[in-house]
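Quick illustration for those who missed Monday's session on complexes.
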Amino acid sequence: MLAGRTLHMRVCAVLAVVSALLVACTPNDSGKITVGVKFDQPGLSVKKPDGTLSGFDVDVARYVASRLGYPPDRITWIEAPSAQREMLLRNGQVDYLVATYSITDSRRQKVDFAGPYLLTGQSLLVRADNTDITGTASLQRHKKLCSVSGSTPAQRIKDRYPGVQLQRYDTYSACVEALRNNAIDAVTTDDVILAGYAAQSPGSFKLVGKRFSEEKYGIGVQKGNDGLRRRINDAIEEMERDGSWRTAFVENFGAAGFAVPVPPPIER
Ligand code: GLU
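Prediction with glutamic acid bound:
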């Protein structure tokens, strides 16, 4: 009897460990996975009028989901504006975020990151006929610059370029419309994002100057979810190894004219 009960307890203990592991690894048990992306960033992640999503971040997000066992029809997409990303993860409203999300030490206090899966850097977008903005130095002459609340580029301008009139909007597409309408002089964020807008409106805009930061895009997960983080890192590595990463890069950034880079090493 005692032996039987001990065995029973052991089996239960093992089952408890196994189910704890399953819970730790499986984003949720609803049979669906919820992924946060941008909806308005051509080349990276854009929601088209028919409701479908496309872009590099979307391809990465779909690849990761498939490796976690979720085919495309089991993904629920949620819009993740820059300023809401940490909150969406902390509240458990998304399982992970693939949303042009730079890995930074201050964000690491609140969330964890898999990756990085792409390297980029901050740059400037101006109207195609502009001649007086050639780089960050020209901004100090009281130029009106637009960026997005809760983003690293907006923070960097605030910290390092005090002479610039920074306007913070909720989305980069709103900044780009303001640029088109002459309400502002330039937009700043990562060059892959800016190049996507330039490619979408040929002849309207141009990128100027050099990259003036290094942004490493990571996949955001809830702080402490090491099991999910590890599985996402495995998926990114596999995407790079089997050629899907390269295909996604060419398909999404080809129009913007970027050469295919070597993917950055994963930071386990
Ligand atoms: N990569 C930068 C960031 O995470 C800018 C792009 C964005 O706002 O999504 O803040």
